[in-house]
Amino acid sequence: HMDWPTSDICFSEIGFLAFIAMVINCTAGMERKLQKIEVVVAMAAPLELYCWKGDWGLPSVDTDCLTVLAYAKFAGAPLKVHKITNPWRSPTGTLPALKTTEESTRSLSKPSNIIIHLRKQKYNADYDLSAKEGADTLAFVSLLEEKLLPALIYTQWVDSKNYVDVTRRWYAENIPFPLNFLLPNRIHNQQLERLRLVRGDSTLEPGEQLEKELYQDALECMTLLSQRLGSHKFFFGDSPSSLDAYVFGHLAPLLKVKLPNGKLQQHLNSLDNLRHYCTNILILYFPSEGGEPPIHKVSVHSDSSDFDSEPHKRRKQILSVLFAMGSMLGYAILMGIVSIQHVRPQAALVGPRHIEEGGEEEEEEEE
């Protein structure tokens, strides 16, 4: 009879252990289900692309953004596109930027890295290319980056006439206030550094000789591209590839943006097959963007629209002036050019002569 309590204890321990095992199994099963749900949600969530907005009949005004947008269209990648004018709103602080669902690569910025990531997600525009065509793609992309890209940077960001009249003006008008006072010049400096990096010369300075060399390389590159394309619809037949995305991204701004100094544009327009090639891609893959752009720089509005927009224009001008004055005053105070001191209260109780002397001293301090 003395064994029953021990037996009860054994049975209770076994039941408790079985209960713990059941809880562990249920927890593990729930974790597996949650993991499956997370995978399904990650697969269902679209990739998000941040890029510069479009103009002049282009889906984007930026070469790198155009390259990524074109590749995504060619590969059928379901991107959620955010077309913005403030790069600080992107995950990387630059444009283009791809926001992913992977822990290791939360965001990507370079077009080549974005394209590689899309390929890993089974969106491959080069799937049907042969080994030789793949090698040709690498060779022509290198040619674009070494010969054509430097000239594009120069003609848009370094050439004084094009930069002041078109490039800087567009970014200053579209970037939100007050960043439009800061970012255009910052991007200009970044593009100049990029040009120096591509050319392999950290001391590179703009000039006639540099312009001549860059434009000569660009003309030769466009001629080679025209010869390689021939009468084909795309560079490797009837289906576009990553090479078509790169070529379109580099040539489309040159074709559509009207620049005062248009040496490269004139040569591109003389190559009929390249001109039709860019136009066809716009019509086929960006039909809502491919029409003739509105002449917004010198557009004529009705009197009523001018009247309605006048208060907003005046407010923007006033804010711009106040921002500039505040910046100048802050700089003057920081550098010690202007100092601020409090006048003693006793000065108000003395006679007129002392008041005048105190006023003269304060005026000198303001200077």
UniProtKB/TrEMBL annotation:
Gene3D superfamilies: 1.20.1050.10. It holds the Pfam family GST_C_6. Coiled coil: none annotated. It is found in: Mitochondrion outer membrane. One of its GO terms (biological process) is mitochondrion organization. InterPro entries: Glutathione-S-Trfase_C_sf, Glutathione_S-Trfase, Metaxin1/3, Metaxin_GST, Mito_Protein_Transport_Metaxin, Sam37/metaxin_N. Keywords: Isopeptide bond, Membrane, Mitochondrion, Mitochondrion outer membrane, Protein transport, Transmembrane, Transmembrane helix, Transport, Ubl conjugation. The keyword Magnesium does not apply. Residues 65-187 form the Mitochondrial outer membrane transport complex Sam37/metaxin N-terminal domain. Its main location: mitochondrion. The keyword rRNA processing does not apply. It comes from the Eukaryota. The chain crosses the membrane at residues 6-28, 318-340. Involved in transport of proteins into the mitochondrion. Essential for embryonic development. Belongs to the metaxin family. Interacts with MTX2/metaxin-2. Associates with the mitochondrial contact site and cristae organizing system (MICOS) complex, composed of at least MICOS10/MIC10, CHCHD3/MIC19, CHCHD6/MIC25, APOOL/MIC27, IMMT/MIC60, APOO/MIC23/MIC26 and QIL1/MIC13. This complex was also known under the names MINOS or MitOS complex. The MICOS complex associates with mitochondrial outer membrane proteins SAMM50, MTX1 and MTX2 (together described as components of the mitochondrial outer membrane sorting assembly machinery (SAM) complex) and DNAJC11, mitochondrial inner membrane protein TMEM11 and with HSPA9. This is Metaxin.
